[in-house]
């Protein structure tokens, strides 16, 4: 194809518009080379079996595509089953026009600018490359790399060539390469969007029909064709790009010819084309205007919304009131939710505080117990040690003492005992000697007395015998006499009797003598016997005495010994007892030590547990503080949301003397509405509506009135400034509300007392974390003079205070 030709028309009427000037050849070649390389890369990736070299030439590409099979395959790969790949052609012979024709028809259907069959056979491969790249762009938009941005002719791009391609050239190059008409510039507007691909195809088809022109011969356009084109609405469906291409082509042709003359019909056609383009521009402008209007309408809508929002913010108009109400409702809901959350938080906090207090108490109790236990343990230890020492010393002392005593006693008793023993033995010996002596004496005496006695006895017996003999003799003489007397008796009885009497006298005399002798010997005997017995008795008494004495001494010594033994025994038993008690003490001290060790261990365990508990408590308190901070923030946000300035109205009940009067309060609304009736005015005029944050009816209690103010007291302690004051005519109940009645019970306390009570209460509860200083000032403003009511000096200081 001739590179100098500026405008070409193929057999099938495709406007290839390759009419670039010869001076642009070198840059175009570079562009073409890059495009081809890009196309080859794409074809290789799409059909890996193709195996085209990266730097394939136009001829390589031609030989690959010439039979049309690859083209059909490419198409089917992009859109499966789109064309029939059937008719294979003979590679060596002419290209399979059937396959190529199928591909070209498909291009028509897809609205992609196609190439001419002759281009594929022997002409420039540029149109073929462009066609394929557009096809790629249509099926794979935005997948182009390396600075390529190929879009279909339907895409809106002001830098595109009229063939819908954007080369990898720089903007400057493109500026040089493309000559842009004013229409093209007009077409740069982003709103100049082209019809869809299908429509494009339809229009392009028509346009091709319209422009059945041969290259470089628009002057020779058949009159019939131009007339047909000149018909009204014949250009209606032609794409703008195509129209611009036509205009460019004509202009280039005229430049080529250097004649500057454009045949009249062509000029007419050109005008028509221009008119058509202008019409389209005006349509687009109209479209733009409508869009502009649309945007304006939207802007107005948004502005009205902004105004509504502003109105809401200022809260002046009725509308804002409505919106405000809506928002207030939302805020109320949010508030109730937050309050519920706050409640649970408060409960949690209270629970945590309680737990903390309890654990603090437990800890302090345990600490106290531990201290006490330690002290008692120390005391007991000390006591025991001192006791043990004392006991030991006492024992040792007692032991020593008892030992000494025992020794002393032993020494004493032994000396005494030995002394007394010797004495006793001596005495006993002496006594025994005496006894022996006395025995001897007694024996002697006995011997003496017996001999004497036996002597006197023999004497007596001799005498008795003599007497008996004499008696016998006398008896014999009596008998003789009797015998004589018998004889003589007969002589003289009286004589005999005289004689008997004489004999009997003699017998009595001799008997008396015997008795006398007997008594004499007996008395003598009895005398010596008694003496002897007496002496023996004395001796025996002495012996018994000495024996008794010795016995007594022995008994004494024994008793002393026994008592010392007893004492020793007592000492030993005492020592044993002391040792036993010492052992017991030791054992008890051991057990106490053991117990104390145990207690220490248990205390350490408890301490550890307490440490863990303390840790958890510390964590909990940290969380609690964080919660508290959040809670405070939320709480104060709620207070803010409720409004910085709140006005409450309280209706005082009638005083006892005012019962008969009628109230002018007509209605007390839940949402802060108060309707007051003026009975002197008729109808609506007599009713006035007031709005407050809240209205408290005449039966409202002090607690109810305070309940709405109460949260602010907490805010005070969170560092917010709060002012509560009462306003009203005299006797309306300001003092009653703020202070309470004179004889005030806790139930009747006014806002001041309740606020102070809460203030101290909360500060007390937070004392572990925050120390508050609370001050009170009381002033009176009267006749525009401020007086310090709490001033201690009687003068009642007046403002400004002098410090
Ligand atoms: N809510 C109420 N319930 C019962 N009695 C009330 C109530 N409010 C006020 N009173 C009574 O009304 C009388 C006047 O009230 P109070 O003294 O509080 O009014 P005030 O506005 O402080 O008057 P002033 O401005 O003259 O000091 C008192 O006897 C008070 O006990």
Short overview:
With 803 residues, this protein is mostly helical. The protein is 66% helix and 3% strand. Helix 3 (69-78) packs parallel to helix 4 (97-110) and helix 10 (223-230) runs parallel beside helix 12 (264-314).
Explained architecture:
This protein is mainly alpha-helical. The chain has four domains: 22-279, no CATH class; 320-635, Helix Hairpins (Orthogonal Bundle), CATH 1.10.287; 648-769, Kinesin; 773-803, no CATH class. Helix content is 66%, strand content 3%. The protein has 18 helices and seven strands. The protein has helices at residues 25-46, 58-65, 69-78, 97-110, 117-121, 126-139, 171-177, 182-187, 197-210, 223-230, 240-257, 264-314, 318-487, 493-642, 702-707, 710-717, 734-738, 751-765, and strands spanning 648-650, 665-668, 673-677, 687-691, 694-696, 779-782, 785-788. It has a three-stranded antiparallel sheet with strand order 2-3-4, with no helix packed on it. Strands 1-5 form a two-stranded parallel ribbon. A hairpin with a 2-residue loop joins strand 6 (779-782) and strand 7 (785-788). Helix 11 crosses helix 12 (264-314). It is elongated.
By CATH, the topology of the largest domain is Helix Hairpins
Sketch the topology as an H/E string, one letter per element: HHHHHHHHHHHHHHEEEEEHHHHEE
Overall number of domains: 4
- What CATH architecture label of the largest domain applies? Orthogonal Bundle
Give a quick account of the main beta sheet: strands, pairing sense, barrel closure. Answer: 3 strands, antiparallel
Query: Which descriptor suits the 3D outline?
Result: elongated
- Count every beta strand, where a strand is a DSSP E run of 2 or more residues: 7
Please state the CA-atom Rg, rounded to the nearest Å: 80 Å
Strand order of the largest sheet: 2-3-4
Bound molecules: adenosine-5'-triphosphate
Q: Ranges with pLDDT <50 over ≥5 residues?
A: 1-24, 87-95, 142-220
CATH class of the largest domain: Mainly Alpha
Q: Roughly how much helix do the residues carry, as a percent range?
A: 55-70%
């Amino acid at each position: 194809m001739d590179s100098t030709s500026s405008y070409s028309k193929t057999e099938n009427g495709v406007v290839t518009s390759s009419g670039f000037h010869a001076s642009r050849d070198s840059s175009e070649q570079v562009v073409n080379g890059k495009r081809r390389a890009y196309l080859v890369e794409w074809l290789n990736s799409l059909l890996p079996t193709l195996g085209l070299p990266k730097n394939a030439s136009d001829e390589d590409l031609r030989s690959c595509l010439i039979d049309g099979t690859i083209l059909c395959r490419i198409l089917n790969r992009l859109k499966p089953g789109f064309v029939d790949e059937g008719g294979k052609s003979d590679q060596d012979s002419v290209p399979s026009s059937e396959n190529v024709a199928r591909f070209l028809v498909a291009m028509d259907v897809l609205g992609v600018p196609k190439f001419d069959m002759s281009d594929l056979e022997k002409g420039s491969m540029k149109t073929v490359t462009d066609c394929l790249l557009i096809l790629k762009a249509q099926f794979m938009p935005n997948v182009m790399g390396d600075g390529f941005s190929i879009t279909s002719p339907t895409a809106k791009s002001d830098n595109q060539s009229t063939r819908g391609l954007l080369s990898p050239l720089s903007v400057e190059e493109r500026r040089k390469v493309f000559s842009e008409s004013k229409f093209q510039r007009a077409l740069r507007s982003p709103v100049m969007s082209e019809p869809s691909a299908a429509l494009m195809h339809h229009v392009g088809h028509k346009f091709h029909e319209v422009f059945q022109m041969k290259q470089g011969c628009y002057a020779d356009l058949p009159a019939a064709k131009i007339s047909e084109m000149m018909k009204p609405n014949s250009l209606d469906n032609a794409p703008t790009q195509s129209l611009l291409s036509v205009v460019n082509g004509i202009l280039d042709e005229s430049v080529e010819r250097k004649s500057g003359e454009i045949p009249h019909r062509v000029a007419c056609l050109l005008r028509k084309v221009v008119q058509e383009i202008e019409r389209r521009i005006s349509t687009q402008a109209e479209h733009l205007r409508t869009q502009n209007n649309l945007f304006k309408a939207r802007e107005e809508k948004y502005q009205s919304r902004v105004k509504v929002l502003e109105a809401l913010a200022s809260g002046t108009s009725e509308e804002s009131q409505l919106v405000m109400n809506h928002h207030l409702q939302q805020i109320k809901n949010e508030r109730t939710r937050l309050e519920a959350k706050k409640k649970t938080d408060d409960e949690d906090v209270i629970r945590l505080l309680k737990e903390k207090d309890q654990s603090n108490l437990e800890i302090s109790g345990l600490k106290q117990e531990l201290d006490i236990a330690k002290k008692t343990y120390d005391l007991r230890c000390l006591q025991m040690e001192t006791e043990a020492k004392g006991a030991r010393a006492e024992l040792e002392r007692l032991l020593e003492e008892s030992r000494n005593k025992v020794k002393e006693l032993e020494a004493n008793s032994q000396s005494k005992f030995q002394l007394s023993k010797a004495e006793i033995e001596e005495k006993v010996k002496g006594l025994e000697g005496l006894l022996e002596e006395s025995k001897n004496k007694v024996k002697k005496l006995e011997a003496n007395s017996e001999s004497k006695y036996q002597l006197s006895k023999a004497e007596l017996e001799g005498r008795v015998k003599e007497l008996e003999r004499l008696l016998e003799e006398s008896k014999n003489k009596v008998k003789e006499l009797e015998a004589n007397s018998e004889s003589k008796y007969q002589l003289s009885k009286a004589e005999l009797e005289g004689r008997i009497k004489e004999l009997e006298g003699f017998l009595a005399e001799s008997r008396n003598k015997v008795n006398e002798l007997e008594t004499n010997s007996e008395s003598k005997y009895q005398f010596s016997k008694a003496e002897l017995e007496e002496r023996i008795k004395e001796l025996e008494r002495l012996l018994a005495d000495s024996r008794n004495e010795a016995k007594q001494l022995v008994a004494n010594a024994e008793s002393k010994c026994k008592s010392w033994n007893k004492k020793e025994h007592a000492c030993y038993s005492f020592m044993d007892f002391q040792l036993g008690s010492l052992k017991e003490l030791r054992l008890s001290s051991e057990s106490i030590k053991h117990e104390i060790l145990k207690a220490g261990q248990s205390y350490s365990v408890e301490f550890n547990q307490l440490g863990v508990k303390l840790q958890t408590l510390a964590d909990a308190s940290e969380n609690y503080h964080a919660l508290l901070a959040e809670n405070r923030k939320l709480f104060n946000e709620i207070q803010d949301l409720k409004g910085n300035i709140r006005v409450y109205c309280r209706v005082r009940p009638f005083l006892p003397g005012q019962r008969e009067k009628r109230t002018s309060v007509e209605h007390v609304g839940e949402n802060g509405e108060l309707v007051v009736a003026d009975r002197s005015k008729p109808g609506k005029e007599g009713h006035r509506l007031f709005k407050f944050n809240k209205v408290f009816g005449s039966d409202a209690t002090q607690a109810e009135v305070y309940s709405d103010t109460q949260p602010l007291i907490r805010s005070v302690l969170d560092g917010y400034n709060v002012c509560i004051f009462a306003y009203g005519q005299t006797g309306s109940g300001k003092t009653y509300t703020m202070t309470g009645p004179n004889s005030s019970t806790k139930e009747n306390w006014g806002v001041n007392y309740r606020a102070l009570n809460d203030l101290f209460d909360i500060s007390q509860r937070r004392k572990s974390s925050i120390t508050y200083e609370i001050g009170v000032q009381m002033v009176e403003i009267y006749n525009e003079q401020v007086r310090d009511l709490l001033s201690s000096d009687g003068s009642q200081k007046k403002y400004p205070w002098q410090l």
